[in-house]
Write a structure and sequence with these properties.
Elements (H helix, E strand, L loop, with lengths): L1 E5 L3 H11 L5 E5 L11 H16 L3 E9 L11 H20 L3 E11 L4 E11 L17 E2 L6 H4 L3 H4 L1 H14 L3
Parallel strand pairs: 1-2, 1-3
Antiparallel strand pairs: 3-4, 4-5, 5-6
Length: 183
């Protein structure tokens, strides 16, 4: 089965292909630009994005949004994670979290799939902590500042092992189950 994936991020595309490929889903990247609404409400953001993507592509498509939710920042940045990250980057992000009084964080992925008739949502989350200093490669957004519970390394340091335990993996597993059941 072939499904369009709205993304131009090569890291996300590789992760998605590695997870969905073995269950028979051929991921076709759709690197079109969609203006995202800015909101803390991730499901609303994903709904808006997948509807815009389907309107432009005209075929079944899925989108994903992954955000960090920090108790020390009253759940922020959530749906606004990309804005926070673009402004702060790794070192300033770690400093902000340290100053918040809590290094706890939950990473959540929401996938929206539009098949022309309906929108379906699939979610995954992983709890963890923000380290004292960023660790590992810094080329994939905040992977260098997220240590999943039960690990001593950041997602960036874990490399491909991240795909076995990530929030995106969990959401994609739910999506794959839906696809395999024939929708």
């Amino acid at each position: 089965m072939e499904i369009r994936f709205l993304s131009s991020n090569v890291h996300k595309i590789r992760e998605v292909e590695a997870i969905l490929g073995p269950v028979g889903v051929q991921v076709v990247p759709a690197p079109i630009k969609i203006e995202e609404i800015q909101t803390e409400d991730v499901q609303r953001l994903v709904r808006d994005k997948v509807l815009k993507a389907f309107e432009r592509i005209g075929r079944p498509v899925f989108v994903e949004h992954t955000g960090l939710h920090l108790p020390g920042l009253n759940g922020l940045p959530g749906g606004l994670t990309q804005i926070f990250w673009d402004r702060l980057q790794a070192d300033s992000f770690v400093t902000l979290v340290k100053n918040s009084g809590s290094r706890l964080v939950t990473a959540k992925t929401v996938i929206g799939y539009c098949d022309s008739q309906n929108i379906h949502y699939f979610e995954g989350e992983v709890s963890g902590t923000v380290p004292d200093i960023p660790a590992g490669p810094r080329d994939f957004q905040w992977d260098c500042v997220f240590i999943p519970d039960g690990c001593s390394q950041t997602f960036a340091e874990l490399g491909d092992k991240k795909n076995e335990i990530s929030m995106r993996r969990r959401a994609l597993d739910h999506f794959a189950t839906y696809i395999q059941r024939g929708r």
